[in-house]
């Protein structure tokens, strides 16, 4: 299975990616997690990316495309992979298409912007694994600690309300056009294009997971 999870910041891509990757035995490729790892490691890429991410902007297409191409060449991607937060611009989608990487599904998780700010303000993450919680909607077993390792959870630097608003604006202008891009392609060339599926991301995490699997298996 090769798929793209599409959706606004805070739509629940990372949360649902965990379940999908477990079920299909595929790696989660989150460009956001990869960039945060580079920031933490203090690499030149990380230093440059941090400023852009903290401002709610997008890292340049060339950098992202290079990162993703290297990642999918790794042996664990041979049986498929899940893209979370990539592609995020039309040029990124075109690069994927030009590289001849065939995809099975594009799954859009749709959540209205009003619901997103609340989700982001309560989000807590385990930086090493990318595991994501919410203080009210998806709480860890022990407050402030990761369920698997018991290590501390943190708040992401870009989850400040002002930055979230900027990220939503960037999503609306730069990423949402991908909805039409993949929908049209699926209509025009169903043999080569990935199937397009869209679900509502409103409801409990378990409800969304059910919708995700229904959509992926239809
Ligand atoms: P990235 O890490 O990809 O962030 P994002 O797309 O903005 O998405 P999020 O991770 O914020 O949200 P999510 O959909 O994964 O939601 P989650 O499951 O965590 O990117 C960060 C930055 O990196 C970008 O701004 C950009 O600068 C850069 N970048 C990354 N990729 C790039 C690219 N391809 N090109 C250029 N730049 C790039 O859920 C959110 C919260 O809601 C959690 O607390 C969760 O517990 C909770 N929640 C989940 N489901 C539910 C539910 N059903 N009900 C209630 N709460 C829920
Ligand atoms: Zn995420």
From TrEMBL:
Ligand binding (ATP): 10-15, 123, 132-133, 203
Compartment annotation: Cytoplasm
EC number: 2.7.4.3
The keyword Cell membrane belongs to this UniProt entry's keyword annotation: no
UniProt: AMP binding residues: 31, 36, 57-59, 85-88, 92, 156, 167
Adenylate kinase active site lid domain span: 123-158
Swiss-Prot/TrEMBL catalytic activity: AMP + ATP = 2 ADP
NMP as annotated region, ranges: 30-59
Chief location: cytoplasm
Positions of the UniProt region annotated as LID: 122-159
Top-rank taxon, per record: Bacteria
Keyword ATP-binding (UniProt): yes
Biological process, per Gene Ontology: AMP salvage
Family in the record: Belongs to the adenylate kinase family.
Domain notes: Consists of three domains, a large central CORE domain and two small peripheral domains, NMPbind and LID, which undergo movements during catalysis. The LID domain closes over the site of phosphoryl transfer upon ATP binding. Assembling and dissambling the active center during each catalytic cycle provides an effective means to prevent ATP hydrolysis.
Function, in words: Catalyzes the reversible transfer of the terminal phosphate group between ATP and AMP. Plays an important role in cellular energy homeostasis and in adenine nucleotide metabolism.
Name recorded for this polypeptide: Adenylate kinase
Organism: Tepidimonas alkaliphilus
Gene giving rise to this polypeptide: adk
